[in-house]
Every structure is written in structure tokens, then in C-alpha cells.
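Collaborator request log, item 7. Partner lab (contact: R.S.) asked for a structural prediction of Separase to inform their binding assays.
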Amino acid sequence: MFLEKSKGLHDDLSEDAITDFVMEACKESSFLLDIVHQFDSGKVKSIVMSSLEDWSAAANLFNMLPCPTALVKQWVKIECKLSKDDIEDEFSTFHCLLSSSANVSKRTLGIILEQELLAYEEMKALSPELCQKMQMKIFNILLQDVFITKDSCLQKSRILIRKGKALRACGTEGLKDCIHCFSEAISTINDMYGETCSRDIPVCHQLAVSYCLRALCIQEAEPTSKRVLQDIRAALNLWLSIHIPECSSTADQHDLLSKNTMLLLYNIVDLLSLKGYTKFHLDIYKLIIRLFKWKNVPLEKCLAILWEYRRINHALCTSPINEAFIMTFTEHCGENSKVIDFWISCIKGSQPLLVGFLQIFSFLFANLPQGSCHYKSSFRVDITVDEVKDTAEKLISRVPVSSHSVFLAGYLYYDLCERLTSNGRLIEVTYVRFAFIFHVDGSCEFKKLILCDLNDVIR
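Returned to partner:
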């Protein structure tokens, strides 16, 4: 396909035009692969080999050429379909097909194999057994045959991290091997870069991720191990040492600023809170705010996002806001950020967030003597139960109900139940709980069972 189309190329084409041409050829080859498989599956292997050899030849000339994702996905999809007929069949990786080709370099073979790995991850639902088997096979090939030189240690550590994640996804029985993968990723980077790793953003970030993931797995295997806190401390030190100059490339920042980094930090702060260890909270909040600033997110929006997802409270404390967060946020926004009016101004664009905020703080201030708190002059303490219910019901009455709406409504109902319980209104607590179940679950039989339980409670 590539060779046939190349006859129409001219010497004066720009690199962008050639890139577009190659990627279009990849898509067409993918479509051809699907058609041929339906009528003559014997030719599929030769077509995919020829297409990838041509892509590899182009990629050797143009380093920024996009990956042949569509073609690789189609091949993996075909393999998964075949596995349903005969799971015992020996399925080939692209390494087996292309490693002897003179047109395929180690670099391009690595790119193709990583795309194959990603495709098997995405196709797991089609054939779980085959996909797991092929992933492990590709991991081993990449680690033993492809990323074996000193200048590929970053790629090697990245594959070790992915292998560790894949092993953990298989269940807790793979924890030991999982921890070993993360340990090897850490050793690989440290052996190559040593103390200089903090000068390179991708290297520093990848090392920090390795420490964090190992800490989470060690927590599962050995909950009392001191290595959990040691690894978390090492990860935080690495992330906090990163400085992003204005002239740095977007590629260098991509992984660091991805949502996965924030999710990892959320998991770490939750783990530390559950362990009752708050010493690192200040540094974690510093890092979270720094990440938002690097992504050019206004601090007011940052505050709204963190409040929306309940990321600024202490998991084992009744206080709705972690003191460490207030201290860190004040460093960036000044003393004004300690005033409730400032918080209200940040979240007033969302009615559910505003109602939730008012409910929590009105509940906390409800028993204070009149005039004892200066917040009362600018803060509503009379938010009613009906207002909270109405707001929650509006969130989950839309069809279809989004998981985000359910999350927000769930917290509104949860806080309302705490408020009613503290006032001894236990029957209303039961109504609130079942109201939420009614709105979220559409099963009539389930509703009948709930009605029976509710009637028993009322009696």
C-alpha cells in the first residue's frame, strides 16, 4: 500500500505532507486488513508485515512520524477474534514477524511493540486470557531484546512500570513480582542518572511515579513496613525538586501534568490519612497547587475543583478542610483565602457545590451563640433541608444520570444525613437514604424491596 502510493510523491513535499500521507496509508492498510481477513485470512500476515516495514522505513527518515496505531489495533483485533476459536493456538508478536527485517530498526520495532502492547490492553474485554498472555510476552521482549542499551534506560523503566501495573491488575497474588518491577525501574534510573536525575523532568517524574507505585504495593503486602513512608518521601522530594522554566517543551511536561499524576497524589494523601500520618500533607498540597499553576489553572478554579471532589478534607477528621491545605493555599492567595466569602466566590458558579458548602458550615456553626462568629455577617446559616434535597434531586433526575451527578448528590445526601442524625431526626435520615437509592436505581423489583424495608422501619 505504501509503495504503491509512493509513486505519486514529489521531492518538494513538506515533512507534514509526507506525515499525513503515511498516516492515511496506515488507515487504508488497516481497512484493507479487515476486508482481507474476512475473505482470505492467509494473506493478513504478509500485508501487515509489508505495511509495517514501509512505515518503519519512513519513521527512520522522519523521527516525529506518528505511530501506526490503526494498523496495529486492527491486527490485534483479528488475533483476539481468532483466539475465540482456538485459545491454544500460538499467536505471534510483531517481534517474531519483524525482528529479522532489514527495514525495521530497534527504535521503530520498540515503537511498534509498545503500540501492540497498548492495543492488547484496550482489547482485554474481547479475549482476557490471550491479552494477558501476549502482554507479558511483549513486556519480556521489550526488556530483554529491545531496550537493552544505556541510552534506552528511560524506556526500559517505563516498560517495567507498565509491567508492574499489569501484574497488579491480575490480582494480589502478583504483588511480589509487581514490587520487583517497580524496584527494578527505580534501580535502572538511579544507576543511569544518579543525583543528576532532577535536572531532567521526564526522568525525575518517572522515578517519583515508581516510588509512589511501589509504596502503594508494599502497603498491600506489608502494611506496617517503614518502606511505605520512605518511598512516599522520596517521591515527594523528587517532584518538589522539579522546576519548569517557561522555555521548556510541552513534551517534557506532558506526563508530569497528566491527570494520572494528580490521581496518584490523591491516592497517596488518602493512604496517609487512613494511616493517621499527616506529616506529608503540607508537601502534597504544595505539589498539587504547583501542578495546577503549571497547567495555567487559576487558583480560584483549583479551589473549586478540589472542593468539588472532596480532596481537601481529612479522611479521619470532622473538619471539612485540612489545615495543611489552608496553610499552603494562603501562601499563594494571601490572608484573604482564609475568609469564607472568598471560598463562596470560588464555588458560587455551581449550585450543588454552593449548597453543599453552605450546608456543611451552617451545620458546624449552628450551635454557636448568636454573634460569636464574625463569619455570620456574610454567611447563611439557615440553609434548609428542603433546599439540599431539591438540589440533590435535580442532579439525579436527569436522564441519563452521569456518575459525576451521582457523586455530587451522594455527598449532599451524606452530609444531610449527618446533619439530621446530630439533631435526632433519625426517621428523616432513613427517608433521605432511600430517596437517593430510588433516584439512582431504576429497578422496580429493587424499589419494592426497599419499600418493604422502609415500612418496617417506620413501624
